[in-house]
Structure formats: C-alpha cells, structure tokens
Amino acid sequence: MVSDMTSDATLSSHLQELRRGTVVVASLTVLREPGYGYSLLETLSAAGFEVEANTLYPLLRRLESQGLLTSSWNTDEARPRKFYRTTPDGDAIADTLRAEWSRLDTAITDLDKPGSPE
C-alpha cells in the first residue's frame, strides 16, 4: 500500500516506467508468430499488459527500424492489415531480455528474504 505521503502521480510515474520495458519484451515474444497491431493489443490486454494503441504503434515502428521486426501487408481480406514478425535479431533480443527479466526477478525476490544483503 502506498502511504499518504506518496502521491498518486509519483506512483503512476514509476508504474509507467516499469511497464515501458515490459511491453517491448511482451511484444517481441508474441510476434514470434506473425500478428497485426490490433491483435497484438488484444493479446497483450488479455495477458494483463496495459498498453494503448498510441503507445504500441510507434513502438512497433521503432522495433522495425531497429531491425527487430519485419512487416508486410496482407491485402487478401477486405481490410488490409500490416503484419509484424520478429527477425532473427528480434528473437535473440527477446531471449536476452527474458533471461535478464528472470535474473532480476530472482534478485529482487532474494532481496526480500530475511537476512538478505543490505
């Protein structure tokens, strides 16, 4: 529970900062299979990730410009959709980020144990 001395704005800022990187890891993980932006939003939302379209679409473009995603248009349906998929570099980055996430989770859990180093 947040104390009365800590403002909602402070908490919100820290939560936003914490979530920012997790959306990158989650997106790279999900997009190992081709998917379009709206389906990614739905998948992330169902998994508990709070992300808005105006945050996700620029992220997808940035990851593509970094060579971590590739995209192609599917015009087979009435509404064309841009599908994204991780590149080999994107897969490698996702693996590294997930391993680091796991390491950090373990480290934080260890810090919370009685007798942990201070």
From TrEMBL:
Residue ranges of every copy of the Transcription regulator PadR N-terminal domain listed in the record: 30-92
Pfam families in UniProt: PadR
Protein name (Swiss-Prot/TrEMBL): PadR family transcriptional regulator
Bilayer-crossing regions: none
InterPro entries: Metal_resp_DNA-bind_regulator, Tscrpt_reg_PadR_N, WH-like_DNA-bd_sf, WH_DNA-bd_sf
Source organism (scientific name): Cryptosporangium japonicum
PANTHER family: PADR-FAMILY TRANSCRIPTIONAL REGULATOR, TRANSCRIPTIONAL REGULATOR RV3488
